[in-house]
Amino acid sequence: MSLPSLLLVGCGKMGGALWQGWLEEGLAPSVILDRRCEAPPAPHHVVRSPSEIPQGFKPDIIILAVKPAGMEETMASLRPVLDDTIVISMLAARTIESLRAASDGARTKIVRAMPNTPASIGKGVTGVCSTDLNEGERKLCTTLLSAVGEVAWVESEALLEALTPISGCGPAYVFLLAELLEKEALRVGLPPDTARLIARGTVAGAGALLEASPEESETLRKNVTSPNGVTAKALEAMMAPGAWPATMTRAIDAAMARAREMAS
């Protein structure tokens, strides 16, 4: 099934990953609005400014994959093509209400989507929220966003904001784990190349096992933990009062507080 006509605003890592996935799926004639993007294959077009959008081009869906600064100007510049479209916004901390206000009364349906950085290699998780869509439109948005990984719909923007410190920020926590493992490998005497290899490989391999296994993450942890063994002693330190579990709670609370500040 060919995907509908799209206007992709912003073709950086995230937008580019989405675009590549859509091309592979099959895409009706569409337009990329980006100052630095290379020309896509025909019948698609790239334009450098909204004024260059081909006359008569009417997208079914507009995807905003740019930085949130200047959102009002972006929406104003797109006003001629907004009517009777679905707008999927990936703008951080920009609510559906603010996007609707910036649309200047356009007849458009607003969707907020929050992908994380692994989406740039097709392994992301994207949180999605909208109260405007019918069942068919929701399925279409799911198909589009599935080009870069898993899609998780939530029923309110409050729940979408709750996703931010989990899936949105979560990759940074995993990268920190890899960083700390590498530093500890160096501290105990392993050479730099080996330290990097085993730290990254361990995190990547554990993630792949978690993805492939039907077991709960708690079960997988217990499976590798022999009673009173080496792993058990390490986890005893990590799970002590005030250690990892408590630190994670503080981290999530701090991230949620900051997300609320940015949205206000």
Describe this structure in words.
This protein has 264 residues and is α/β, with parallel strands linked by helices. It has two domains: 6-153, NAD(P)-binding Rossmann-like Domain (Rossmann fold, 3-Layer(aba) Sandwich), CATH 3.40.50; 163-263, ProC C-terminal domain-like fold (Orthogonal Bundle). The chain has eleven helices and eight strands. The chain has helices at residues 13-25, 71-77, 79-82, 96-102, 135-145, 157-168, 170-187, 192-212, 217-223, 230-238, 244-263; strands spanning 6-9, 31-33, 45-47, 61-64, 85-89, 108-114, 124-129, 149-153. Strands 3-2-1-4-5-6-7-8 form an eight-stranded mixed beta sheet, with helices on both faces. Strand 7, helix 5 (135-145) and strand 8 (149-153) form a beta-alpha-beta unit. Helix 6 packs across helix 11 and helix 7 runs antiparallel to helix 8. The longest helix is centred in the C-terminal third of the chain and has 21 residues, at 192-212. The two termini are 41 Å apart.
